[in-house]
Please model this.
Amino acid sequence: MRLSLQVASLLLVVLPTSLAFTPLPSTKLQCSNNINKVRTRGLAVSSPVEEGQGQDDSAGPTVDFPPPLSKIDALKRAAEFWSSALPIVLSYYSKSAELSFNEALTGETLTEEQQQSIWDEQHSAGAEKLAATITSLKGFYVKTAQIIAARQDLFPSQYTDALSDFTDNVDPLPAALIKEVIKLELCNRGESFEDVFSEFDEEPLGAASIAQVHRAVLSDKYGGKEVAVKVQRPSIESKLMGDIANLKALAKTFQDNDALPLDYYTVFAELEAQLQDEFDFVAESVAMDRIYECATKDDNGLPCESPIVIPRPVPGLVSKRVLVMDYLKGVPLSRAAEEMLKKGIDPDSPEAQLFGRKLLSSLTEVFGKSIL
Model:
């Protein structure tokens, strides 16, 4: 019972972070040469042309482009989320009180198996409701799901399993919009999208809250190799960081309130610092190269074989919001067990456990080199 109340407390700690990730409404824009473009913080943001000015029948496909989010919209979304999420947290306390009352009334103590069955049912119901709420609201509420899904050491399997799709299977942006972002960020003057990529898969390999990744093949001009293209969602940084700034201001008001389970101002300040790095793909590419250098040199600085394969960024095709890198075929670690089952391998078999130990050893070695 104590463990399940800890789950409720963890949810109470994690769920407020979702307020910083507010989904955005969309407006329709035309992707064509007849769009007025204004550069903001390095990214060209498109705006519709005025009626009757330069519009013709050659307009490109209609795409979704997120407009600025008003404070009222943010509050409405937050209220909708909490109206669904808070009852999940409270249900754990009410269930605990119900079990304690029944035990005091009857004098009978449930067995561990009986308690486990009751709490498993509670976890399943809570996970289903939370997943449905996040699926309905979409947008940046998926950050909550990503945090929970990644902490299998803290949350019941019902939650991590139900929310695992949010780690790389968020609703993707239209390919037409993604290509526009890439052209604005990477293409030189007079250069077309086709001058850079000879192939571009419109179906993304994965889509998360900040960016999505597409497989592509570079043109001969750029080397002709297979690559992965990571593209940041337009307007994400300013909206996300603005929301966090507002939350910090609100949390500071209650910083000395002992009734809260923790200092939320500190939580949002740390979240702000961490997320700022996620928006800079140039810094990410530098980190990729540094990790590669660490992994491919021994303690004496001499070349050695890396225990893991590390993708490299493609020089000249990196900007703050677009990162082109080597394409490596594989599956996410979160789906390793699923992939083993597809190949007829028991995830609990000695062979699978040996693979797990070797993988952990390799990752630990590279991580150790990177921090020393």
Observations:
- Residues 204 and 299 are 39 Å apart (CA to CA).
